Amino acid sequence: MTIHLRSDRAVFRFSGPDAHRLINDVVTGQIPTEGDTAAAWALLSPQGKILAEGLAGFAEDGLWLDVHASVADDFFKRMKMYRLRAKVDIDDLRDTHRVGFAMEPSNLAHQDRLGPVSIGYRIIAPADATAAWSEDENPYHTARIANAILHQGNDFPANDAFAHDIGLDILDGIDFAKGCYVGQEVVSRMKHRGTARRRPVLISGVDAPAGTAVIAGGRDAGTIGQVVDGEAVAILRLDRITDPAAATVDGKTVNLSLPAWATYQFGDSVPSED
């Protein structure tokens, strides 16, 4: 079995009697206490923008969270701040552990499942046990892009997108039944007022770098994320896409399509916020 290194992910382990409560009270998702399936989550600003996002899985009496390396320092700092007097140990494992992707479980493994989408397994192992891992990261990104799964750092920067923008409300990355967490008021308002304007859209036939604008109807509808073999995911304004066949990236026609899990349509418009 081949395990593909995901070199841009950072690992943190939370343990102690208050670890689950701390994380569950701060992030959007429903954090697991058992099982081999990881849960999607996001840490939001008070204004509802994503500061960090990733997967959380329970194993070996602790919760293992991964984030993009570009936000790891900020995530670590914020979680230590939120800890206050809670009985929680937060271990920064960036120097000692690595994250990988595989289609079968091994080492410390959690199924990478977001709602109806399953993308193999997230593998975590000590760095000295990963010498045989493949450094080709494209298989993972090919799989997630094909399923329109957006990643912070690869597709959008910190403090730029709302949880609804990347589909976490559909992909089980938001628990609408639990109590308050940071940014919860914004998430709840977007759900109940139906004010999510931007959504994940699949782009194919791309010959341009990440960050290039998608033009629809002569207007900027959003920008593409990481490109692998001409495929990418973009967070786009649905109301600006009335003719998906007419969209362009860098002056060249591209193909737009909605992910299989989408509950939205091109051309959807939403009421304005007060």
Automatic annotation (TrEMBL):
- Please report the stretch or stretches of sequence annotated as the CAF17 C-terminal domain: 197-263
Query: Which Gene Ontology biological process is one annotated for this entry?
Result: iron-sulfur cluster assembly
Q: What is this protein called?
A: CAF17 C-terminal domain-containing protein
Q: Which organism is it from?
A: Devosia soli
Q: Which domain of life is it from?
A: Bacteria
Instruction: List keywords of the entry alphabetically.
Output: Transit peptide
InterPro entries linked: CAF17_C, TrmE/GcvT-like, YgfZ/GCV_T_CS, YgfZ/GcvT
